[in-house]
Structure formats: C-alpha cells, structure tokens
Specification:
Blueprint lengths: L1 H22 L2 H26 L3 H23 L1 H15 L4 H8 L5 H8 L7 H15 L7 H15 L2
Helix pairs in contact: 5-8, 6-8, 7-8
Amino acid sequence: MIRIYLILLLVIIAFFGMRGFLKTSPAVLARYVKILLLSVTGLIVIYLAASGRLNWLFALAGVVVAFLLRLIPAILRHAPYLHRLWFEFKSAKQGTSQQQNKADTKGTMSVEEAYEVLGLKMGASEAEIVAAHRTLMQKMHPDRGGSNYLAAKINLAKKILLKK
C-alpha cells in the first residue's frame, strides 16, 4: 500500500513540475539547468572523494597540466593569429564583419571631417598629414588591438586630404 502512495506522490510531483516547467522562460530554464549540472557534478566529486575513487581524476589533471605546459610555446608563437581569429569569430557572431566595416567607410567624407579625424587644423601641410596619419595608425592599427573601422576612417581621411 505504501508503494501506491509513493507512486501517486511521484506522479503528482511530476505533474506540477511539468506544469511549472512549461510556464517558465527559456532564460530561467537555462539558469536552472546550469545549476543542476553543477550540483550533480559536485555531488559526484564528493561521492568519489568519500569512496576513495578519485585517483583517476588527479592523474588526468596531471596529464592535462603537463600537456598544456608543453603547448604554451606553440600557443605563444601563434598568439597574433589566434587573436585575429578570435576577433573575426566574435565580429561574425555579432553580425558585423570586416566587409561590412569596409563598406561603411567607403562612403563620402568631407574635408573638414578628414581634418577632424586626423586631429589637424585646416590647411595643414602634406608632411603634417602624413605624420598625423602615421601616429594614429600606430595606435589604432588592428594588428595592435585597434579597430578595423577606425583604421579605415584614418586611411580614408589621409586619402582625401592628399587627394591620391
């Protein structure tokens, strides 16, 4: 008889759980799933530690650390390429690509805007324009952590002012 009551209790809990599950938003459900997964992982680790079966995990951690230490020179050698790939991935994920940035800068720019972009006064000489362009590009070049958009604007300003 007790089994029937327990099964009935489980069915009632499942019914109200499903009803609540269907009414909650996906963001809340995602948060609950993350909490559930972390809790289950923590309980498994605690169980393995209490039962003395955690040795394989420490051995695996040692192998992973040794592998990463041997991998660091290769990662550092390819860091600029990895950084560029990461930047392209993030920009593609956000829906803005380098082609869109280039398309945005192909529009027209007035001479006043070009002087303003380079930080010069009207009537600056060619040497001043080139020097201002060089210093700004050293700061804003994409290879040095700058923006493709700003670098394109700076190049466009120089092109307009030098009329080349």
